[in-house]
Amino acid sequence: MTLTTGDHIPSLEAAQDNGRPYVPTPGRWRVLFFFPKTVTSHCQLQARQYQALLADFQALNVDVIGINSDPRQEQLAFRSVCQLDYPLLNDGQQRISTQFGLLDEPWPGEQVRRPRRETFLVDPSGTVRRHWTQVDAGQDALNVLEGARELLGGESRQSLG
Where does the record place the catalytic residues (predicted)? Predict the structure, then answer.
């Protein structure tokens, strides 16, 4: 069963792509965006959009975390190509994707199941406050930023331009 708004997330026990364990910062909101594969243009676009808006998320006390099940070496290459400054969690054993209910059937020609592209906005207590399905890789970061601003009382998309 997929986690959704109002659900409490499980603890995220995973290593980051840098090999260090992930430890959430107490008192901060989190964006958890799941993406299926590091070598696809859609996943790179999504990650780059989060990087471009990272300062806006941080100004709202919101951390951005990408979650993927590709091997660590592929995540490191992805970080370098996309020039990312936020954590990528390595879900190689797919525990997190399974706990969130996001594993899809294997892609054609592959044996491994991959997580669906879905995004969660989680409050400091670990409760899902917003959940995006049918995510558009090019709009996800902006949509989530707007959702965070609505919940946290910040400026809206209309006041950005």
Answer: 43
